[in-house]
Specification:
It is a single chain. The protein is of the alpha/beta class. Helix content is 43%, strand content 16%. It has 17 helices and twelve strands. The chain has helices at 8-19, 37-47, 71-79, 155-164, 178-186, 210-227, 250-256, 270-274, 280-291, 297-309, 313-323, 329-337, 343-364, 369-376, 382-391, 412-422, 424-436, and strands at residues 24-29, 32-36, 52-55, 59-66, 84-89, 100-106, 125-131, 134-141, 146-153, 169-172, 190-193, 238-239. The protein is globular and about 80 Å long.
């Protein structure tokens, strides 16, 4: 394609598109994300929006979506298995062409937005790497920070785990087995390729042996490159041992309808009837328990002991009352880490922390040593709660553009600017009066 026949802005778009040929480029222009050429033709069909054209030195196909209401469009494309490159203006408008860059690549495995993700399920992205002991499967939910790795696998075990865990996006090294890639595609898994294997030195990898560090770093390098930042909020990688758990392959679990219905009706699944959890985090943990049944006697007895400890009715009612007001702090922390947090998230974090002291007090009513050990590990984060309580309005808007997020009295300079904005005429009159006096 001859770029020179196009305007400088369109040349800028084409240069970015060259680096993100496998993604739909959302190119920010004013209040819209615009798509051009084949991206526009494809997106207009999938999103069912109008396809128009733009004169950019030559007529080019174009469609667009409003940036302030982009979430449902992103959701629809992600559900169809597309990648989306978000291009934003990174320099101030002035003379000449403003600089634009891809600030983030959104893929089915890297979604963070509340409302797109299923609150009751993890959204894993995985990678496969051949090690000395066989294949290693690394999988991470970047929305919650949960991180896992398992090795010594054969290819059939890897495929079974990918389907069982519903890993939607799989990162492979170059020149991977084509027959295996076809199996993944047949099962509607998005394939991404990364040739970056350098070991990342992070605290959540320190406990892993070198081969597992390399396998985990293969996935982390891909995430760092696509998200344009280091991933700091991950929990230490849990090495998943097949010992101690009953092995149920994907077909058996599907036949048993543990969490997936054979007739596309959630009410036929085991989890539908078991899940009385008050929090999204509890629902995800219960789903993990159901899909990885224990067969280790010590682990089973410990779980039974915890269930028995929580049996008394009166304390349980008080605990449930507090759990009802616990928001999905794992995913809130994930959005904070990626700088995609909004004021509503911060309010929900504050409300969650507000419940911790009373929740601990309710748990103490059980008067059980096993629960007391757990309670001691619960950090109330009172300094953070006090800070958020002073700063964030009780009913803040979602976007910064709407204003009204910070409480009056939190920042003296902000209060002054807000007074000027709300009482501009009075301020001008006061200024004129002061000026005439001198």
């Amino acid at each position: 394609m001859d770029k020179q026949k196009y305007t400088p802005m369109m040349q800028q778009y084409l240069e970015i598109k060259e680096d993100y040929a496998d993604a739909i480029v959302f190119f920010r222009l004013g209040d819209f994300y615009e798509m051009f050429f084949d991206d526009a033709i494809l997106a207009s069909k999938v999103l069912e929006i109008a396809l128009t054209s733009r004169d950019a030195g030559a007529k080019v196909p174009m469609c667009g979506v409003p940036y302030h209401a982009v979430k449902p469009y992103v959701q629809k494309l992600i559900e169809k298995g597309f990648k989306i490159a978000i291009v934003e203006q990174v320099t101030e408008a002035g003379k000449g062409l403003v600089k634009r860059e891809v600030i983030r690549l959104i893929t089915p495995g890297t979604v963070l937005d509340d409302g797109i993700l299923d609150a009751k399920s993890n959204n894993f992205i995985g990678s496969i790497l051949l090690t000395e002991k066989g294949y290693a499967l690394t999988y991470v939910d970047i929305s919650t920070g949960e991180s896992f790795i398992t090795d010594s696998l054969e290819k059939k075990n890897v495929l079974d785990l990918i389907l069982s865990l519903d890993i939607r996006e799989v990162v492979l090294p170059p020149h991977f087995d084509e027959s295996f890639i076809e199996l993944l595609k047949d099962n509607e898994r998005l394939i991404s390729v990364s040739d970056q294997f350098q070991i990342i030195e992070q605290k959540y990898l320190n406990h892993l042996e070198r081969e597992l560090k390399r396998a985990a770093s293969h996935l982390l390098n891909y995430l760092v490159n696509t998200q344009k930042q280091m991933i700091h909020h991950l929990m230490p990688f849990k090495v998943v041992q097949r010992v101690g758990h009953m092995h149920l392959d994907y077909r058996v679990k599907k036949h048993l309808e543990i969490d997936e219905s054979l007739v596309n009706n959630s009410q036929t699944t085991l989890l539908y009837w078991l899940n009385e959890c008050q929090t999204a985090m509890g629902s995800r943990l219960l789903k993990s328990f159901a899909n990885h049944p224990l067969n280790d006697m010590n682990a089973l007895n410990n779980r039974y002991d915890m269930i028995e400890a929580l049996t008394p009715y009166q304390p349980r009612e008080r605990v449930l009352d507090h759990l009802k007001y616990i928001y999905d702090i794992n995913r809130i922390v994930g959005r904070i880490s990626f700088n995609t947090v909004n004021a509503r998230d911060l309010y929900q974090l504050k409300e969650t922390l507000k419940q911790i002291p009373d929740l601990k007090e309710a748990l103490h009513l059980y008067q059980n040593p096993k629960l007391d050990e757990m309670i001691e590990l619960m950090d109330e984060h009172q300094e953070l709660f006090v800070f958020l309580e002073k700063a964030i309005q009780n009913e803040p808007p979602i976007t910064l553009k709407d204003g009204g997020i910070i409480k009056e009295g939190f920042n003296e300079k902000l209060d002054e600017l807000r007074r000027i904005a709300h009482h501009g005429y009075e301020w001008i009159n006061e200024y004129d009066l002061f000026d005439t006096m001198f």
